[in-house]
Amino acid sequence: MKMSLRTQLLLIFTTVIVLIIGAVSLVTVALTNDHFDKYVTQRNSTTLVTIRQQIALSYVNNHDQWQAKQLREIRNTGYRAGVLVTIYAPDGRILMRPTAKQQQSVSTGFDRKHTESIRIQGKVVANAVFSGYDPLGYGRHDVEYVSELKTSLITIAVITFMVTIVIAWWLAGRLTAPIKRVVAFTGKVATGNYQQPLPANTRITEIITLLESVNALSGQLNRQQETREQLSSDIAHELRTPLTMLQGTLEAMIDGVWEISTERLQNMDEEVIRLTHLIKNIELIASIETDADQLHKARFDIGAMVDAVTQNFQAKLEAKQQRITVATRKIMMYGDEEKLRQVLLNLLTNASKFSDFGATIQVRLMQESANAVIQVIDSGIGIDAKELVHIFDHFYMADPARSSRNGGQGIGLAMVKTIVAAHGGAVKVDSQLMKGSTFTVKLPIQGGDDHR
């Protein structure tokens, strides 16, 4: 049978409360009865001894005679102690008996009697019969006291139970309220509403962790959704122009407007190759942005990686008679070496494209605290300040005309940012028009949040 978490918690609390109150009540009653029994037994024994002594003293003080007044006082003393006292002479004559009123008020069903002989110098001068309540047990006042005590304990137990049930109901509500919000929130997430984060207005560590995890999941889903939407828009925009051009060229050749030539076919083939390369890069960015586990991390020397990439890149600089200077050091880090090679290669390609003939590109690797820092510095055309905020966006080109002439697609720097962010790092650019640019990549040596 299904039941809410609050109901289950309340049942658990109620069971525990009943067991605790029941156990405490039983132990309290048992201890009270035990100690009170000992007290009553000791008190009654003292009472009987006192009455016997009074009877003996009454006989001795009156020169072996009995005085009715003193016997009545002894009878009343016993009555006040809850005991009926009847005194017999040795020959069986009744010297003193309880009054009818005393018998009626004290006798409530106990028929036990206790007889003791009163001896003076070994001679029996009287026999005392203690009756009514058990002379070794509870008296009338004792029974009333115990009854009131038990009633008080029951009342306290009932009140405690009711109060604790109310507290348990409130506490169960406090515990389940954040979980109910999580349920409602995940319902919204299931329908595609990722915008509003769930506030962690609770002090319970586990629930705070749950809320943070749900918010992180929602944020990741939101980023994936935004990535898909942005990529869909960018891809549609980026593919529309070349596909339209290819379609127009093919239609012109089919209609005989243009002659089919090797040059035109080569141009179309180059455009298809460019589009294929673009699609592969888009797939790579999308896979990394939506799932950082696409990275294959291991420990490697990033200094050796920088040396290898820059050395291999030297050949591409010869066409523009450019050169590269490198300053590195050995730094062991945890990351995806191949993806970081792509980062450096994209930055070098970007620097070479927008630098003049004979320019020098500088590459530096240093360690700052727990981060490896790569800098790629060029003396090219630079970037306008208003363009800097968009420079890492998908398909964004600060100088579209020049980028097109250089074969740019506006995706290289977006790939750089995506790969660096997946490593828990950051990339920034400092640039001025006609004064060059400095791209700085900062990477956690231990792999950032993804370190395992």
Automatic annotation (TrEMBL):
Q: Which residues cross the membrane?
A: 9-31, 153-172
In what residue span(s) does the Histidine kinase domain sit?
Answer: 234-447
InterPro entries (alphabetical): HAMP_dom, HATPase_C_sf, HATPase_dom, His_kinase_dom, HisK_dim/P_dom, HisK_dim/P_sf, HssS/ArlS-like, Sig_transdc_His_kin-like_C
Gene Ontology MF terms in the entry: ATP binding; phosphorelay sensor kinase activity
- Compartments, record wording: Cell membrane
**Alphabetical list of SMART domains matching this protein:** HAMP, HATPase_c, HisKA
Q: Does the keyword Ubl conjugation apply?
A: no
Question: Catalysed reaction(s)?
Answer: ATP + protein L-histidine = ADP + protein N-phospho-L-histidine
The segment(s) forming the HAMP domain are 173-226
Enzyme class name: transferase
A cellular component term (GO) from this record? plasma membrane
Which keywords label this protein?
A: ATP-binding, Cell membrane, Kinase, Membrane, Nucleotide-binding, Phosphoprotein, Transferase, Transmembrane, Transmembrane helix, Two-component regulatory system
**What Pfam families does UniProt report for this protein, alphabetically?**
HAMP (PF00672), HATPase_c (PF02518), HisKA (PF00512)
What PANTHER family does the entry give? Answer: SENSOR HISTIDINE KINASE CPXA (PTHR45528:SF1)
Protein's UniProt name: histidine kinase
Report the source organism.
Lacticaseibacillus paracasei subsp. paracasei Lpp122
